[in-house]
């Protein structure tokens, strides 16, 4: 009987290695948010001190499609995607709101002073509570909210020219129609 139980830990280890090996190249952006096709969570975010745009709340997402970008000054991919956000806003005219995730206000202000501020509103999410409600598990993440306040699109990770062309712009066009 003991000899029959001996290979069980080895088989369990082999099974775990197989699961991890098949998941290692998985695209994190393929994770579908449970919030898609649901109203944006209820929240109120104060403005980030030192930045000349207001904070925002759930009600501000009503009336026009809005791209909501979760970012932080300490996030290297956020720096890389920043010019792409500016380009999307210039090309589509969409409202762009930012959720400043777990960041010191002076660092967020310096980040935007250096790179430019494309945001129409930025809310300070210092305690990450609103980000959690939105289902954010890392920055950057970008959401598209339609004119009724419903989340219709989510992209996990930094935007790239390819994801903008194949995912973001079509989603914006659909939301604006």
Automatic annotation (TrEMBL):
<dbReference type="InterPro" id="IPR004799">
    <property type="entry name" value="Periplasmic_diS_OxRdtase_DsbE"/>
</dbReference>
<protein>
    <submittedName>
        <fullName>DsbE family thiol:disulfide interchange protein</fullName>
    </submittedName>
</protein>
<dbReference type="InterPro" id="IPR013766">
    <property type="entry name" value="Thioredoxin_domain"/>
</dbReference>
<dbReference type="InterPro" id="IPR013740">
    <property type="entry name" value="Redoxin"/>
</dbReference>
<dbReference type="InterPro" id="IPR036249">
    <property type="entry name" value="Thioredoxin-like_sf"/>
</dbReference>
<keyword id="KW-0676">Redox-active center</keyword>
<dbReference type="InterPro" id="IPR050553">
    <property type="entry name" value="Thioredoxin_ResA/DsbE_sf"/>
</dbReference>
<feature type="domain" description="Thioredoxin">
    <location>
        <begin position="34"/>
        <end position="174"/>
    </location>
</feature>
<keyword id="KW-1015">Disulfide bond</keyword>
<comment type="similarity">
    <text>Belongs to the thioredoxin family. DsbE subfamily.</text>
</comment>
<dbReference type="Pfam" id="PF08534">
    <property type="entry name" value="Redoxin"/>
</dbReference>
<dbReference type="GO" id="GO:0017004">
    <property type="term" value="P:cytochrome complex assembly"/>
</dbReference>
<dbReference type="GO" id="GO:0015036">
    <property type="term" value="F:disulfide oxidoreductase activity"/>
</dbReference>
<dbReference type="GO" id="GO:0030288">
    <property type="term" value="C:outer membrane-bounded periplasmic space"/>
</dbReference>
<keyword id="KW-0201">Cytochrome c-type biogenesis</keyword>
